[in-house]
């Protein structure tokens, strides 16, 4: 978090009184606030603006808070989310944390506790993803080999044996890193999606296949034998450069 500026906290709450009181306490604590009482309005704002944290109720007039959290995580947005809700059942709490919320606060709550929880989450998430290109690879990771080419994550480049160099997109880089890290092992499709897009991403297999095709075509253009990189039909993929796994 940039300590020279006030963090912007998005409050998604349909109770006007609770929203106003919460905003007042947060502003007294040195934070900016923006209030929305509908999921769709908050989602549109998030698509166009950067916020530091979202306070999110579960029961909202047009959709539940889980729908907004899904939308946030599907866009690979790393903004932290705290559920602030009157729904205090253990099932709701577990679901909220499982689908990607950073904390869960039940109403009624004290202002000092909420401010403390917000600050704790902001500290925890401040630099957590700064160096990540995808959930499974960071710009600080060392270069690695794949099909005779050298992949440099810090430069998002791939150097081929023919002397040519090409840029890599983040998803292609994440796919190659996951294959190289698990060479000789079958990687289920879901495992690949979770590694590259994140555990809460709602990514279809067809989207993954499109990236796999792009990766294969990239290597073929440079005369690389992609035989060790195989599709295991109905399961996933394998990178087996040593030929240790059965076809």
TL;DR of this structure?
The chain is α/β, with parallel strands linked by helices and about 250 residues long.
Notes on the protein architecture:
- The protein is α/β, with parallel strands linked by helices.
- The protein has two domains: 8-125, Response regulator (Rossmann fold), CATH 3.40.50.2300; 132-239, Winged helix-like DNA-binding domain superfamily/Winged helix DNA-binding domain (Arc Repressor Mutant, subunit A, Orthogonal Bundle), CATH 1.10.10.
- It has eight helices and 14 strands.
- It has a five-stranded parallel beta sheet, sandwiched between helices. The chain has a four-stranded antiparallel beta sheet with strand order 8-9-10-11, with helices on one face. A three-stranded antiparallel beta sheet has the order 12-14-13.
- A hairpin with a 2-residue loop joins β6 and β7 (137-138).
- α2 runs parallel beside α3 (65-74) and α6 (170-181) packs across α8.
- It is elongated and about 65 Å long.
- The mean pLDDT is 88.
